[in-house]
Amino acid sequence: xxxxxxxxTSQPWHLETLTQxxxxxxxxxxxxxxxxxxxxxxxxGCVRAQTGMGEILIAGRHNGAIPxxxxxxxxxxxxxxxxxxxxxxxxxxxxxxELVWRNRLS
Length: 106
Fold this sequence. Notes:
With 106 residues, the chain is mostly helical. It has one domain (5-105). The protein has helices at 5-10, 20-31, 35-43, 47-59, 69-81, 85-105. The longest helix is centred in the last third of the chain and has 21 residues, at 85-105. It starts with a helix and ends with a helix.
């Protein structure tokens, strides 16, 4: 990958600044379907990648057929706070659904 194993264990990689060349490589790999590259971009604050991670987790493509809504919410919330309209819409719809179910169960 782009960071040596030593750097990964001695210091959290997401605190390091990636070069423009590294970012270009990560974007190319993420667009080609490399989930690890998409995760690294999402951790670096890339809104498109954060939204994509949320979609992957909702669809259950990360570990099979089981959606991970809690982690999807986390990624979507990060994208939403940076102004991503799709993520904001999804979070609003999710909150609305939760409120409806809570009222039904009360």
